[in-house]
Amino acid sequence: MIDVSPNDDPNGSDSIIQSVPLSDPSPDSRWFQNEQSAVSGQPQLPYSIAGYVDAIYNVALSYLHETLDHIALVLLAYSILCIVLYRALVHRERRWLVRRAHLPQCNRALLVTAHPDDEVMFFGPTILELRRRQCRVFVLCLSEGNHDRKGAIRRQELWDACESLGVRPEDITLVNATHLQDDPAAEWKTVTIANQLLRQVESLDVELLITFDKDGVSGHPNHCAIYYATASLCLSGMIPSSCKVLTLETVNLCRKYLSIFDLPLTLLLSTNWVILGWKARRAVQNAMRLHNSQMVWFRKLYIVFSRYMVINSLREINKSDVEFEILGT
């Protein structure tokens, strides 16, 4: 760089021309000079690999910041939508906007579970909604949950939890059979379960049968076995035509722990659902705490964050659905 400065010499000589050393150009300015040189046909300055990497890193970082800002705004908008929608659902004067529960009308319903605590851990909202409609709910539990040698304790916990949800003690049936033990490694025979189910359906004259779907919500083999036994009864036409069958939908792990923030997806994707108000949600949580023998740390987290404490989405199955699911597996 050439610096021209006026001469302060009293003799009045010409201006003094001084040479100022150039500073080392930055990678960005060097890239600009190279581009200008390429256009003018002048020789290009050498551009190092480190300069390319640094330029690419800066561009990627700016795009990342912009993307994260957009994601944050979307999550904020989605959260606000969930809260507003939930308040509209549970508010008594606004229930005409969206129905808080959509279930078939019935006077007698049978809930079939595998272990004590399943009735609250997964089906609590459904039980509360049916009892609110004055529907008589029968509970059939196919094992006493003796996997940890706590069968007697869990039996009493089952009765206490069901009573807290409004189920009569005489409407609870607990099966204690050697071939239906609480054990993920034990194979529950479809025929054995189907016989138990059919006996209860016919003797109780129920209009609604509720149980797990083919994935069993948690993937427990005992849960899944109940579905396949129910499906076999549907295929054979042994379930009375007056009795509808609903299965509790299994959702992915992310949705499972979204609590009320799974609400829009439930309303969009499900045909039958139950959504509890905050007070009713606490009733389900308190009922779950009555299963004190099962209150390990991760179940304490479950009752706080799980959608199954506040939302149940169910699907009605028929013969054609069962044929497709069973033949496809």
Give a brief description.
This protein has 329 residues and is of the alpha/beta class.
Task: Walk me through what this model shows.
The model is unreliable at 1-5 and 12-17 (pLDDT under 50). It is built from 13 helices and ten strands. Helix 5 (151-164) runs antiparallel to helix 11 (278-289), helix 6 crosses helix 8 and helix 8 (221-236) packs across helix 13. Helix 5 (151-164) links the parallel strand 5 and strand 6. The longest helix is centred in the N-terminal third of the chain and has 42 residues, at 49-90. The chain has an eight-stranded mixed β-sheet with strand order 3-9-10-8-7-4-5-6, sandwiched between helices. The chain has a domain at 101-328: Rossmann fold. It has 329 residues and is an alpha/beta fold. Helix content is 48%, strand content 14%. Residues 1-27 are annotated as: Disordered. It comes from Anopheles dirus. Pfam families: PIG-L. This is N-acetylglucosaminylphosphatidylinositol deacetylase. Residues 8-21 have a biased composition (Polar residues).
